[in-house]
Hints:
Elements: H1 6-17, E1 23-25, H2 52-65, E2 69-71, E3 77-79, E4 85-89, E5 92-96, E6 99-101, E7 105-107, E8 123-124, H3 127-130, E9 138-142, H4 146-156, E10 161-165, H5 175-183, E11 187-190, E12 193-200, E13 204-211, E14 217-221, E15 224-227, E16 231-233, E17 262-264, H6 276-294
Parallel strand pairs: 1-2, 6-17, 8-15, 9-10, 9-15, 10-11
Antiparallel strand pairs: 3-4, 4-5, 7-16, 12-13, 13-14
Helix pairs in contact: 1-2, 1-6, 4-5
This protein binds NADP nicotinamide-adenine-dinucleotide phosphate.
Residues 42, 108, 110, 142-148, 150, 167-168, 172, 194, 228-231, 273-275 line the site of NADP nicotinamide-adenine-dinucleotide phosphate.
Amino acid sequence: xxxxxxxxxxxxxxxxxxxxxxxxxxxxxxxxxxxxxxxxxxxxxxxxxxxxxxxxxxxxxxxxxxxxxxxxxxxxxxxxxxxxxxxxxxxxxxxxxxxxxxxxxxxxxxxxxxxxxxxxxxxxxxxxxxxxxxxxxxxxxxxxxxxxxxxxxxxxxxxxxxxxxxxxxxxxxxxxxxxxxxxxxxxxxxxxxxxxxxxxxxxxxxxxxxxxxxxxxxxxxxxxxxxxxxxxxxxxxxxxxxxxxxxxxxxxxxxxxxxxxxxxxxxxxxxxxxxxxxxxxxxxxxxxxxxxxxxxxxxx
Length: 300
Ligand code: NAP
């Protein structure tokens, strides 16, 4: 198993319970994106919601109960054509009869001046991790999807003001989140607007904005800029092993990777839903496919 987000952890649970000797190479973080999420409100069975770290701890404990083992490290190279399949973690070589890849996604960047230089100095990607640093400060959130709106809501608990800058005239975020944010007096929305530059010497002090409809340029004071503009798939390790498109997405776009014994799960193969529940679903399906494949039975 590569990856320990909801998909990898669910796959580990199913594989270990299916009596496979199961090792999870966790990648950077057990829990994946939910490890960075304050409150998961829509995972079934938790009517009052649950914190992301608690949910990921529970997923991990559940997989461990059936014997899954964990290696807190990042895989550095794989060979999907060899038998057994080979996975390297630095110098260490691991061998597997089947492999489930659930490496998830990484935050996208804007690619504007100031962004790289001020990353970690006011430019940030995770409200859950950093919101407290912006107590009584002004924050700009870039994006218009669920992440941007959810993170704006989280930030507004601390910041004096949160300005969501979105390049279109409508939010992409779901109605339930959008309504909550629109009711929050600390959150304001600038539509049809892009960030052209993040300004600051040692730390972020402002952003240069441009209205796409009027062309008007303005400078908005800000102590922090949260980037919530989506995700890129973590597929660099798969380059040369599986067919990837120009954005790095796997072309097969399903659980079956097209390589014998190699299965895919989670956000890596989900361009649409990307919910904890759907990730768990594909992790479960990938493990069941792996079990079936190892038993030598054709998948139905
Ligand atoms: P997303 O849905 O892909 O939204 C990304 C947003 O960033 C879009 O509004 C997009 O604008 C904007 N954007 C992209 N590139 C940009 C650029 N270069 N400059 C300016 N704006 C840019 O990503 P997400 O919000 O992270 O959500 C990803 C998935 O996770 C979704 O399926 C979402 O439902 C799920 N999610 C769910 C929850 C929840 O249920 N509570 C929370 C977080 C995420 P356009 O609209 O113009 O494309």
